[in-house]
Write a structure and sequence with these properties.
With about 375 residues, the protein is of the alpha/beta class. It folds into two domains: about 1-230, Aspartate Aminotransferase, domain 2, CATH 3.40.640; about 235-360, Aspartate Aminotransferase, domain 1 (Alpha-Beta Complex). It contains 13 helices and twelve strands. It has helices spanning about 1-5, 15-35, 50-65, 80-90, 110-115, 140-150, 165-170, 210, 220-255, 285-295, 315, 320-325, 340-360; strands at about 45, 70-75, 95-100, 120-125, 150-155, 175-180, 190-195, 260-265, 275-280, 305, 310, 330. The strands form three sheets. A seven-stranded mixed beta sheet has the order 1-7-6-5-4-2-3, sandwiched between helices. A three-stranded antiparallel beta sheet has the order 8-9-12. A two-stranded antiparallel ribbon has the order 10-11. Helix 3 (about 50-65) packs parallel to helix 4, helix 9 crosses helix 13 and helix 10 crosses helix 13. The N and C termini lie far apart (about 55 Å). The structure holds pyridoxal-5'-phosphate.
Length: about 375
């Protein structure tokens, strides 16, 4: 990244040698990202992140085949980048089906089969959920869509760099990824679009990214994305084995020290770095603030809108009791997370939870 900001500062679209040197860095990054997910370089389109890649996939592909039909299907546990795109499309004349989710946090292939219609053009189901880490059966869904001549997109923002992702093996048409989910820079991502699949651009302007995404490329971000992915893949197996061990250790310890704590999702089919626990009778926001005072950064799926706590749409879709959903916390384990940090978290949590439960009107042991 330093090299393209300092010494190789050309614009990849310029014809002169400085531009061509920058273009070589762009081409190299594209080839590297393509190889990482089993794609061809010409199938990779760089974007400003996962959100843009998701928008381009869903709106762009649906728009390109609008003559065939106006029905799209997304799952109810998608990231807002897909969910809100679906709501926007609904308001603009598309028919949108939001697939229900099982209690285990997974979307059933049968529910997709039931939702498909002759007018369905695009389906989008994420590869791994950002709140629960639950891995979705995307290969089976993609096979079903292929059979019916429907395009299949997966938001793999939470999966790339963590579990094996090969677009050819998965049989998918489009895939989104985002650099900051595998320790790359923020504000850069990519969309894989299988050769032959048409996507109408969201941004109009210059002829960058083969006319699918206008605007001078964020070259520092793009080379950073490619390098981060290379490093993440080289360390993936070791990192995931370590994460699986740490995450089981953490869940077991929290549940043995505190009563009425539930894992959202299941122990299997899960990205181990995401641990989503519901603490009965406590608001997630209060836990976040208390843990923050102890130097521990966690998040919750719930959002505080106009003074009221709105439970996570993912947990609600899983049929979890709204009160329990409001007491959910997402613990994200990362490359730097140590067993000692988890022990420290487990050591401070019981007091925090009992103090909050003592003040809670909804906690009835
Ligand atoms: N999709 C998923 C599953 C995510 O977790 C995120 C980010 O948290 C996004 C999309 C959006 O990616 P970005 O922040 O790069 O726009």
């Amino acid at each position: 990244m330093r090299d393209v900001m300092n010494d190789n500062y050309g614009n990849p679209s310029s014809v002169h040698s400085f531009g061509q040197r920058a273009k070589a860095a762009l081409d190299q990054a594209r080839a590297s990202v393509a190889a990482a997910i089993g794609a061809e370089p010409a199938e990779i389109y760089f974007t400003s992140g996962g959100t843009e890649a998701d928008n381009l996939a869903l709106k762009g592909a649906a728009q390109a085949v609008l003559k065939k039909g106006n029905h799209v299907i997304v799952s109810s546990i998608e990231h807002h980048a897909i969910l809100e795109s679906g709501h926007f499309m609904q308001k603009n004349g598309y028919e949108v089906t939001f697939l229900a989710c099982g209690k285990d946090g997974r979307i059933a292939v049968d529910s997709l089969r039931d939702a498909l219609k002759p007018t369905t053009t695009v389906v989008s189901v994420m590869m791994a959920n950002n709140e629960t880490g639950m891995i979705q059966p995307v290969a089976d869904m993609a096979a079903l869509c292929r059979e019916k001549g429907v395009l299949f997109h997966t938001d793999a923002v939470q999966a790339v760099g963590k579990i094996p992702v090969n677009v050819k093996d998965l049989g998918i048409d489009m895939l989104s990824l985002s650099a900051h989910k595998f320790y790359g820079p923020k504000g850069v991502g990519a969309l894989y679009v299988k050769q032959g699949v048409r996507v109408t651009p969201l941004l109009h302007g210059g002829s960058h990214e083969k006319r699918r995404r206008a605007g001078t490329e964020n070259l520092p971000g793009i080379v950073g994305l490619a390098k981060a992915l290379e490093i993440a893949l080289a360390r993936r197996e070791h990192a995931q084995a370590r994460m699986t061990e740490l995450s089981s250790y953490f869940i077991q310890n929290v549940q043995s020290r505190i009563e009425h704590v539930y894992l959202n999702g299941s122990l299997t089919n899960r990205i181990p770095s995401t641990v989503n626990l519901s603490f009965q009778g406590v608001e997630g926001e209060s836990i976040i603030l208390s843990l923050d005072l102890k130097g521990i950064a966690v998040s919750s799926g719930s959002a505080c809108t106009s003074g009221a706590l709105e439970a996570s749409h993912v947990l609600m879709a899983m049929g979890i009791d709204p009160l329990l959903a409001q007491g959910s916390i997402r613990f994200s384990l990362g490359r730097q997370t140590t067993k000692e940090q988890l022990d420290y978290t487990v050591s401070v949590l019981p007091d925090i939870i009992s103090r909050l439960r003592a003040m809670s009107a909804s906690y009835r042991p």
